[in-house]
Amino acid sequence: MLTQDASNASQRYVATQSVTLQRKPGRQRGLTMVELSVVLVIAALLIAAVFTALRANQRRVEVQNNQNQITQIASDLQGKFGRTGQYANTTLALAIQSRAIPEELRIGTGTTAQNGYGGLIALAAATCTVANDCMNLTWAQVPQSQCMDLVIGTQNVARRIQVNAVDVKALDGTLNLANLATNCEAAGVVPIIYSVGRG
User: Fold this and answer.
1) Is residue 97 part of a domain?
2) In terms of Cα–Cα distance, which of 120, 174, 177, 123 is closest to 149?
3) How big is the chain by its Cα radius of gyration, in Å?
4) CA distance 179 to 163
5) Which helix (H) or strand (E) holds 19?
6) How far is it, in rounded angstroms, from Cα 193 to Cα 162?
7) Could you tell me the CATH number of the domain that includes residue 86?
8) Which of 115, 94, 93 is nearest to 104 (CA)?
9) Which element (helix H / strand E) includes 49?
């Protein structure tokens, strides 16, 4: 009797499984097109977020590197040429040879240099209070997207700052943020001129 009951139970189980399988013949194992689309959308959003974060980080690094270079150059110009009253006799070639302009900014072995944005660096004696008491350091080809951050981070190294030939920091004054914003947005890339000297 037990074997007959076991046999009947076994037959009922097989029949139930057969009916279950017959009811869903189109069901496949794995991802459906909708599920696959959702996975792809999520992956695309994650990739976009990572890419945006990397670009923002790269921008911050570029600004910080240029701020450090400008700060170092301004300090070296003051220390090597300003304290001895030699701004009038200082050329870019002399600044490069004396390492006031860092070696990594020098173009080859020549007497020219360029900044991290690919713009040529220029130096010229200037008048702040009396003749030749300042040195104008031109930082060319600054992208408008980095201009404000760069100037704000380096405002203390110069007596006067011009962006796109307009004073954004008047001689020994404070930074005018409205002028800075307007002139940073004046073009895709802008020159910044730092008047470095004794104040």
Assistant:
1) yes
2) 177
3) 34
4) 9
5) helix 2-23
6) 5
7) 3.30.1690.10
8) 115
9) helix 33-77
Q: Distance between CA atoms of 81 and 89, rounded to whole angstroms?
A: 9
pLDDT in tens, 15-54: 555 544 454 555 556 778 888 888 888 988 888 888 878 8
What DSSP state is assigned to residue 102? -
Strand order in the sheet with 166-169: 121-126, 134-143, 189-197, 160-163, 166-169
Q: Is residue 13 part of a domain?
A: no
Which pLDDT score, from 0 to 100, does residue 4 have? 60
**pLDDT greater than 70 at residue 192:** yes
Mean pLDDT (whole number) for 118-145: 96
Q: Give 49-75 pLDDT, tens digit per residue.
A: 888 788 877 889 999 999 999 999 999
How many domains are contained in the chain?
A: 1
Is 39 a member of any domain? Answer: no
Q: What's the pLDDT band for 129 if we cut at 50, 70, 90?
A: very high
Beta strands in the chain, from DSSP E residues, in sequence order: 121-126, 134-143, 160-163, 166-169, 189-197
List Cα–Cα distances, 45 to 41, 48, 89, 172, in angstroms.
Answer: 6, 5, 57, 48
Report how far residue 139's alpha carbon sits from residue 175's, in angstroms, rounded to the nearest whole number.
18
Q: In whole angstroms, what is the distance from residue 96 CA to residue 114 CA?
A: 11
Distance of CA 151 to the CA centre of its chain: 14
Which residue segment(s) compose the domain that 50 sits in?
Answer: 45-197
